[in-house]
Amino acid sequence: MIILDSVKKFAGERTILDIDRLEIEKGERIALLGANGSGKSTLLKIISSVIQPDEGYVKIEDMEGPIFYMPQQSYGFSFSVYKNILLALDSNYKKEEKSRLALEAMEEFGLGALKDKRADRLSGGETQRMALARLMVCPRKVLLLDEPTSAMDIEGEKSVEKIIFDYCEKNKTTLVMATHSPRQALYLADRLLLMHEGRIVEDTSPKELVDSPKSHWGKVFIEHQKF
Amino acid sequence: MRLPLLLRCKMNAFKEAFNLIVSFDKELYGIIGVTMRMSFSSVLISCLLGIPAGVVLGSKNFKGKSLPMKILHTLMGLPPVVAGLIVFLLLSRSGPLGSLKLLFTVRAMVIAQVLLITPIVTGLTASVVAVKTPAILETARGLRLSKPTKLKLILKENKAPLVSVVLTGFGRAISEVGAISLVGGNIQHKTRAMTTAIVLETGKGNFEFAIALGLILLIIAFVINSIASSFRGDGYDYT
User: Which residues form the domain of A37?
Assistant: First the structure.
């Protein structure tokens, strides 16, 4: 379980994140929804300990393995896509196994033809697919994804969503994902957190939100989804 | 058409300079040796000190960072004669390091150059590293990569600009006059470097020797830049 208690983050005088309490259960799939600047990315960075909260704490209890995180602007290192993916595999894997896993991940994410292409020369959508393949090259117990498909076309987005869904099902992975796509959130998540100005304004299930949104932002979300 | 007298003198000087180079003039090559020893040593030490410091300053945010950055930027513009004076006072017989008897040696010249070049290497490395490093570190932390791997990635991803930083340091070292003449003394066969020799020989009216040294300086700069270009990678591919 991941517990955030009285977590606050400031940018100068402004509070950019203010979470009273948030508990994330093992195996949950959570989608963070909200406008730009609502605090989704900051929340993910704090959970992954990329940045530290100014107040409060994050406690990780009974989680198998570390937390892996894909930032919004994933970096493609200036070597081949294949080597970028190998980079994510630690020394517990043997050389042949690393190679097999990397090739499988590339194939799954449609990167087979880009194996030898430098990752810093990929398009935005290709970079995101490479970053996901790199992160999901082997089983992970906790994944945090920050708008992982924002630069993809709709077909690419749907195929990647299915890969993420199947991966989480197979590995019993806890997923926390920021997204602007209500469709994606409803497809992937079993719990939705609606954020506004750094706060969680609604913590609900997809069904509850569709049937009876409580907050103003929940209603806006449903309107957007109908549209 | 008759060439003006001064221009004819200069043409002869070039011819003489060429002869000095191809005849492997002992004094000329001795001066080149001192210059190379001094420049390479000072750049190597400056890079060993300045690049790690620059990586830390460029990639980490900490309270009060602006003060060391301000000091660093001030030191980047340190006048060579001031650096020379500081080292001279430290190494002179009555100075705190006088017992080491380093004054008027190549080592003293290296110390003065390290004082000049290290802030430049540190400051430029910090600026270079600050551009890409936040994104590199965020991705690397997300993948739970080890600290040595993170450092390797920072250096690898900044390779091309870091080569330029080293070249800038080398350019400063090889072209320096003020500090090394103060602490080296421009002693023949001992501490005479190319730049100090050019100043001396020009003053004496020995243009051939001065031009030969000037030409060799340019050739060395060209060769070193060419070698360095091959390390830079595609970012600086001019072909």
Answer: 2-75+139-223
Q: Give the pTM.
A: 0.81
Is residue A170, in this structure, part of any structural domain at all?
yes
Query: How many A-B residue pairs are in contact by the CB < 8 A criterion?
Result: 42
CATH code of residue A183: 3.40.50.300
CA triple A84-A89-A94, angle to 5 deg: 120
Does some domain include residue B1? no
B144 and chain A in contact, CB less than 8 A: yes
The reply to whether residue B144 touches residue A66, judged by beta carbons under 8 angstroms, is yes
Each residue's pLDDT, cut to its tens digit, for chain B (239 residues) gives 555 656 666 677 778 778 888 888 888 899 999 999 999 999 999 999 999 999 999 988 888 899 999 999 999 999 999 999 999 999 999 999 999 999 999 999 999 999 999 999 999 999 999 999 999 999 999 999 999 999 999 999 999 999 999 999 999 999 999 999 999 999 999 999 999 999 999 999 888 888 888 888 888 888 988 888 777 764 444 43
Which residues on A lie below 8 Å from B145 (Cβ)? 87
The residue with tokens 């551009």 is B131
- Total domains present in chain A: 1
Chain B residue closest in CA terms to A142: B142
Range of the domain at B94: 9-232
CATH classification at residue B207: 1.10.3720.10
The minimum CA-CA distance between A6 and chain B, rounded to whole Å, is 24
Asked if B174 contacts B222 with a C-beta cutoff of 8 angstroms, the reply is: no
Phi and psi torsions of A30, nearest 5°: -115, 135
Q: What is the number of structural domains in chain B? A: 1
Q: Per the domain annotation, does A160 fall within a domain? A: yes
User: A153 to chain B nearest CA, in Å?
Assistant: 23
- Taking a C-beta distance cutoff of 8 angstroms, is the pair B108, B61 a contact? no
- Chain B residues whose CB is inside 8 A of the A77 CB are 136, 153, 156-157
CB of B205 within 8 Å of a chain A CB? The answer is no
DSSP B99: G
Residue B237 maps to a domain:
no
Q: How far apart are CA B21 and CA B29, in angstroms?
A: 8
Instruction: State which H helix or E strand residue A60 sits in.
Output: strand A55-60
Distance CA B216, CA A107 (A): 56
Classify residue B131: in a domain, yes or no.
yes
Residue A186 forms part of a structural domain: yes
Q: B148 at the A interface (CB within 8 A)?
A: no
> Could you tell me if residue A110 is inside a domain?
no
- In A132-171, the residues whose Cβ lies within 8 Å of chain B are 134-135, 144
